[in-house]
Each structure stands twice: as structure tokens, then as C-alpha cells.
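User: Could you walk me through two proteins back to back? I'd like the raw sequence and the C-alpha cells for each, with a short line separating them so I can tell where one ends and the next begins.

Assistant: Of course. Protein one, sequence then structure:
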Amino acid sequence: MQINGVAHTFITVGNFQTARAFYAQLLPFLGLTVVADTANTFYAIGGRTGFGIHAPPPEHAGKRFQQGAVGLHHHCFRARERADIDEAHEFLKKIGATIVRAPREDPWAPGYYSVLFEDPDGTRLEINHIPGKGLLAPDTKIGGGYQDGTQNL
């Protein structure tokens, strides 16, 4: 078996109306089509990806995301072109997103270029671009070693 991408990710938000307003701008910008918009669910699909939010149960209303706690660490959307990252950064600034890290290259994969930001509840989101085969390219190094676990000495 080989999977065909991630079908969907849903997150529970602390303030549904504020998060819905944010994601109603972000997800269409990313090329996703809104297919559900109800009193407690907002969901969009496109690019072999689904992403949605749910309203919290009453006992969790108003809570914020805690980076590093058990559960979701962050969600990363994959862009088709490097220039998409810079365009996304400008869009995110325009809609008032909290930018954690402006676009930059990182050593996670050859040519890894991304922007890191937060939704209104502080949930970490990222948009990245990796050219070519990324970590699947032969002799690809990450974190000081090769993908097969041997060290680059």
C-alpha cells in the first residue's frame, strides 16, 4: 500500500467565530474550496487536501493552543512554487496573522523554504516549498545524517 496524501485534518478551535473568519480567508487563498460552513464546522478541500475546524465543546471554549503539548505540533501546507511562500507571507500580513517566522530556508530538506504563522488561537501553521524530490532524492542529508539513518561524518 502507498497512501495518496492526507485526506483531511480537523482542529478544534477555542473561538469558532474568530477562527472561522481567519480560515474563510486563508483556505480559499490556498486554493481550497469551502464545502461545509455550519454553526460548528468549517471545512474546505483542494489539492488532495482537506482542512477544517470544529467549534469546541462548552468546557473548552476560549482555550488556546499550546505549542509542544501532547497532540498537534503544527500543520504544514505544501506549496507548488517557491514564490508562493513569499506571496503567502504578504497575504498573511494583510489579514493580520501572527507571523512566527518570515520566509526563510531551513535544513529540513534541500531547498526547504517556508513561512511559519499562527491562527487566532495560536495554532501553528506553516506553508512550505521543497523543490524536486526533497528528502527522497539520493544522498539527501537532514539533521547531520542521511535519510537511511547513517551519519554524515
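----
Protein two, same layout:
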Amino acid sequence: MSDSKHTDGRTLDLGGFIKSHREGANLSLRRLADRAGISNPYLSQIERGLRKPSAEILKRLSRALSISAETLYTRAGLIEEGRNRPVVVEAIEADTALSPRQKQVLLDLYRTLVSATSLPEDQKQERQEL
């Protein structure tokens, strides 16, 4: 049902989230649509919750907005939320004081730290010795 007309709470929430990030990045609807390689009317319908975008479109939008695809997938209901991870990711992405590049650096660092803490103890020790 991904490209069909579909209005539910999650789709509206996703559209509002995308619009909020677009406006926070000072991008016009046309500019974001161009960056993501989609049409202006289609992006407008997504933002208004009239269309439920596919995973590929969400991936393009995440790149164009410099936010994680995981966050958009979660908002769209394509993946389940992790424990505390989305809160941290969303806080970084929502911070208007950070540039898109700064957000990406913080997200990369955060993901590196999270993956290091999920390693078995012997592998953590090996990494610390390097």
C-alpha cells in the first residue's frame, strides 16, 4: 500500500515531521523535492499525510534532509523503535542550533559508541588496547 492514498495518524505524523525538518533546514518544498528526486506535488502530499511513501522515497528524503533513514522508517512504521536510541537520534536531528554536517557527525559518533557498547567484553578490551 506504499504509494497509495492513505491517511492515518502515523502518515500525518511522518508528513509533519518531514515538513518540520524541511523548514528547519530552510528548504522550500521545491528544493527538497529536487534534492530527493521526487515531484513537488508528491512531496506536498507526503507532508499533508495524503500519501504514504515507500522505503526508497524515505531514504531519498533522509539524505536530502541529512537525517537518518532509520528515523523516517520508524516514523512511517516500517521498523520498530529501539529502546532509548530514537530519543537520542531525534534530539540530535531536531536541534536547530546544529548544522546538517554537525548532526551527521554526532549521529555517526553516537552510533559508533552504541555499537562499541554492544560488543562482548573481550572485543571491547581489544578495541581499548588499540
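The domain at 9-129 is CATH 1.10.260.40 (434 Repressor (Amino-terminal Domain)).

Let me know if you want the two compared in more detail.
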